[in-house]
Specification:
alpha+beta; five-stranded mixed beta sheet; elongated; binds adenosine-5'-diphosphate
Length: 391
């Protein structure tokens, strides 16, 4: 008021001035309101972007987006690890500039080969590093609402394990069918013979016995195949309990008494003078591994041979050895001994009924107990299989 009095202003001018001030105030308030709304939506946008980023980053599939000039505009961590490359080195660059990275070269070549105008395409990307990896590669055109193509989305899905399992399965079926054919043919042949009128009662009994043996062999084979398939699918459940190893070995030797006697084999169990401490194992599985090893020692040792089973303790480990005076194993075959379905040519000649799965199963069982299994052998002189188990 003093100011107006001092300057002696025209009251009309004052009213005008006050009106303009009120108008300005209104505009300022409006601007502040808009600013607040803007910063609010900016904040919302940042939150939403954070969510999308989190989803993309946690995808278990590799995701890459390239623009129309084939420049990489987005790559998630999974794709970076698949292609063995860091985002900083490739973002904004065209694929053609990056072909000195071997993995990107593969990707680029496939994209070039399959280039076209389809919205979606699926092909296979094989990357060879230390191990071969197979990916299903899905490419999809990214189209806006206005039907403008802004790039291509590439999704890499790892199918290495799936493919491996499929391969193992078909290999498994082929060999299993092959192995089952022999006992089945045996049973068929025995039944045919029994069905003829020309055989005596005694011969009939003989053929029935043969059919029974073939059937037993088939059951053993199917059991081994089931165990192997469980082992490979990783669903072999172990139940641990404390056992006395001396008792288990003694019991197994008893179970093989007839076979040992039939072959006139001398079997010695060399056990420590003082009882060893009990060991925590899956009794059924360790029994299976031991039976496979002792069964082999009997099978591949000729009449009047010798088998020594020994047990010792050292370095907080228990070591079991099964030594025989059998046919032995050549150095070359020793390398393949513990692989699935391996049978040496010599073994095939003297013992036709094996499956080549016993040692593979034994190795898996021992290793599941964090133990080791190995062999020492000389062709024609004999073999000594050892396994150790930690306490
Ligand atoms: P299978 O005995 O049914 O053939 P295994 O997996 O138990 O299957 O053994 C695989 C192969 O290893 C045998 O076929 C044989 O060639 C060899 N082998 C195993 N144990 C012995 C042994 N004690 N002496 C000689 N060869 C053996």
């Amino acid at each position: 008021m003093n100011f107006f009095k001092q300057k002696k202003c025209d009251p009309e001018e004052v009213i005008k001035y006050q009106n303009s001030l009120a108008e300005l105030d209104k505009i300022a308030k409006m601007l502040i309101k808009r600013d607040l709304a803007l910063s609010d939506s900016k904040e919302k946008l940042t939150v939403e972007k954070g969510k999308v980023d989190a989803v993309i980053n946690s995808l278990t599939d590799g995701l890459i987006m390239i623009d129309q000039g084939q420049r990489i505009i987005l790559i998630n961590p999974k794709a970076q690890s698949i292609l063995n490359i860091e985002e900083e080195k490739i973002i904004g660059k065209a694929l053609s500039e990056l072909i000195n990275f071997p993995q990107i070269k593969e990707l680029y070549e496939i994209l070039t080969k399959t280039a076209g105008h389809c919205r979606e395409k699926q092909c296979e990307l094989i990357l060879k590093e230390s191990v071969e990896k197979i990916f299903e590669m899905q490419t999809t055109l990214v189209v806006t609402e206005a039907q403008e193509i802004i790039g291509t989305l590439i999704i890499l899905h790892d199918v290495t394990r799936e493919r491996l399992i499929n391969k193992i399965k078909s290999e498994f079926i082929t060999i299993a069918a092959h192995q089952l054919r022999t006992p089945l043919t045996g049973i068929k042949w025995s039944l045919e013979m029994i069905n003829t009128d020309e055989i005596t009662k005694e011969e009939q009994k003989e053929f029935l016995d043969k059919a029974y043996q073939s059937n037993e062999r088939m059951i053993r084979l199917v059991n081994s195949l089931l165990i192997v398939s469980h082992l490979e699918e990783g669903c072999f459940v172990y139940k641990f309990s404390k056992i006395q190893m001396e008792d288990l070995i003694q019991e197994i030797i008893e179970n093989f008494k007839i076979q040992i006697k039939n072959k006139n084999i001398e079997c010695i169990f060399d056990k420590p003078k003082i009882l060893l401490p009990k060991i925590k194992v899956d009794l059924e599985r360790i029994q299976m591994a031991l039976e496979n090893l002792i069964d082999n020692a009997i099978k591949y040792t000729p009449q009047k041979g010798k088998i020594i089973i020994s047990l010792k303790e050292s370095d907080n480990k228990i070591e079991v050895s099964i030594k025989d005076t059998g046919m032995g194993i050549s150095k070359e075959n020793q390398e393949r001994l513990f692989t699935k379905f391996f049978r040496s040519a010599e073994a095939l000649k003297i013992e036709t009924s094996g499956s080549g799965l016993g040692l593979f199963i034994a190795k898996n069982i021992i290793e599941a107990h964090k133990g080791q299994i190995w062999v020492e052998s000389e062709e024609g002189k004999g073999s000594e299989f050892h396994f150790s188990l930690p306490y």
